[in-house]
Amino acid sequence: NPMLHLEDVYMRYPSRDGTPITILNDIDLKVRQGEFITVVGPSGCGKSTLLRLILGAESPTEGAVLLDGKKLDAPNRNRGIVFQKYSLFPHLSVMDNIVFGLDAEAHGMFLGWLKPGQMRQRRRAFRDQAQVYLERIGLADAADKYPHELSGGMRQRVAIAQSLIMKPRILLMDEPFGALDHATRTEMQLFILEQWEQAEMTIFFVTHDLEEACFLGSRVLVLSQYYQTDAGRGQGAKIVG
Ligand code: ADP
Ligand code: ADP
Predict the structure, then answer these.
(1) How far apart are the C-alpha atoms of 134 and 136, rounded to whole Å?
(2) Does residue 111 carry a pLDDT above 60?
(3) Looking at ligand 2, which residue's alpha carbon is closest to its atom 11?
(4) Is the pLDDT of residue 229 over 70?
(5) Residues 14-41: what's their mean pLDDT?
(6) pLDDT band for position 233 (50/70/90)?
(7) Residues above pLDDT 90, as percent of the chain
(8) Which of the listed residues 146, 154, 157, 188 should we mutate to test ligand 2's pocket, taking the one with most ligand atoms within 8 A of CB?
(9) Angle 117-141-195 (CA atoms, 0-180°, nearest 5)?
(10) 3-state class of 149 per DSSP?
(11) ABC transporter domain location, by residue (predicted)?
């Protein structure tokens, strides 16, 4: 049985004059646990929309998104997301940005039965863990900096560490390397692959770069808007490969 099943999914948005536009047209996709799925397709064809459906941030107009055979619940920590435009908290340091999710999760689980001393100890453990990730992304010296003090590529790397440290079951990445130079991009590709193997995550990775898609993906999804059907040309993107 597939872990994730997009079952005959259609996504339509109202256009300016009110008539609906089909963005995704009859997408049927079964994904097994541990797949690394890269997604390519022309700009505006619905790649981000596909990720938002898997995140559970939106519901399909028709069809269903099933996780373990059940309709998706609201976005939660089982499904992490990294956007091209980084989602860092501007008022938190790099370290606190990375620790934030772990902290929030621990509060949910432990509040009530951890003593203050144990809380401090746990928080120290989180910071040690975060420091390992910071070293791994080449930003060990940036722990106390704030997002506005970093370059775009540095912020992207922090956002990646922020989501990887949570070890989500499904990680959604929407052009996460857009601001990285070639050498850093290569390093981050290897880092993601390493984390993918260790944590047994299922990854969806949207990229403009076909070579990157083929290098990273255990499966490459190709979305097209200009496919041909028996009924003629359709509207909305389909998976064509
Ligand atoms: P991609 O990620 O492939 O560039 P998107 O998924 O961002 O494409 O967008 C696909 C199309 O859907 C675009 O034409 C976009 O304008 C449209 N779209 C996306 N979200 C909405 C929305 N909430 N309301 C109306 N149109 C939307
Ligand atoms: P990348 O963002 O891919 O790491 P950049 O070309 O943006 O590469 O920056 C190269 C290097 O210059 C960074 O690794 C960093 O050391 C430094 N740098 C760039 N922009 C800033 C900034 N706004 N603040 C501090 N250092 C910066």
Answers:
(1) 5
(2) no
(3) 151
(4) no
(5) 93
(6) low
(7) 66
(8) 154
(9) 80
(10) helix
(11) 4-241
- pTM for this entry: 0.85
Top-confidence residue, 101 or 27: 27
188/186 Cα distance (integer angstroms): 5
Q: Is 174 helix (H, G, I), strand (E, B) or coil?
A: strand
What is the mean pLDDT of the segment spanning 119-144?
Answer: 93
The pLDDT > 70 percentage for the chain reads 91
Give the ligand with the smallest distance to the CA of 146.
2
Tokens of 47: 């790649």
CB of residue 150 inside a 6 A radius of ligand 2:
yes
Closest residue by CA, ligand 1 atom 13:
44
State the angle between helix axes of 116-136 and 94-110 in degrees (0 to 180), rounded to the nearest 10. Answer: 140
Reference 153, options 174, 184, 190; nearest CA is 184
**Spatial contact of 27 and 6, defined as CB atoms under 8 Å apart:** yes
Beta 70-71 vs 62-67: how paired, if at all?
antiparallel
Give the number of C-alpha atoms closer than 13 A to the C-alpha of residue 7, restricted to the C-beta side. 14
Element (H, E) at 152: helix 152-164
86 close to 159: Cβ distance less than 8 angstroms = yes
Interval between CA 153 and ligand 2 midpoint (Å): 7
**Confidence at residue 108, expressed as pLDDT on a 0 to 100 scale:** 63
Bridge partners of 239, per DSSP, are 223
pLDDT(175) > 60? yes
